[in-house]
Amino acid sequence: MNIQSKNQGDIQMLELSGELDYHSSPELREKLTELTGKQTAKILVDLSGVDYMDSSGIATFVEAFQKTKRYQGRLILAALTDTVRGVFEIAKLDSIFEIAPTVVEGVASLGSKV
User: Fold this and answer.
1) How far is 2 from 108, CA to CA, in rounded Å?
2) 44, 57, 83, 85: least CB-packed within 10 angstroms?
3) Do 13 and 7 contact (CB within 8 A), yes or no?
4) Helices 55-70 & 25-37, crossing angle to 10 degrees?
5) What is the DSSP string of 32-63?
6) Minimal CA–CA distance to 28: which of 45, 12, 52?
7) Is the dihedral of CA 63, 66, 72, 77 positive or negative?
8) In terms of DSSP H, where are the helices of 1-114?
9) Is the pLDDT of residue 112 over 90?
């Protein structure tokens, strides 16, 4: 898994690529914990490069989601591949998370421009 971090205005963006699984999820958890620890108000995760995700990836996102909600932050998942979207649908979490079809739409939803 590769994680690229960048700022887009007041949005902290994480671009993920590769496989998000038991072995790579601790790195993502560390990055998201760092952001939620700072109470980052707007976090967008670009999942367009993730071709596989297992339950440990889901657990990582659920944990980050709960933390952002505690301080009224927002976590948006954007550009999910069909495979990754399927994992969220099977877990019935597609209606819980804010999911944007594209990064541009996710950024717009957070009130910034790309």
Assistant:
1) 25
2) 83
3) yes
4) 0
5) HHHHHHTT-SEEEEEEEEEEEE-HHHHHHHHH
6) 45
7) positive
8) 25-37, 55-70, 82-90, 103-109
9) no
Residue 66: CB atoms within 10 A of its CB come to 11
Q: Is the pLDDT of residue 113 over 80?
A: no
pLDDT band at 104 (very low <50, low <70, confident <90, very high): very high
**Residue 36 pLDDT > 60, yes or no?**
yes
Kindly list the domain boundaries of the chain, sorted by start residue.
2-109
**CATH architecture type of domain 2-109:** 2-Layer Sandwich (3.30)
Q: Which residue has the tokens 């009224």?
A: 72
Cβ atoms 93, 65 nearer than 8 A: no
C-alpha span between 52 and 75 (Å, rounded): 20
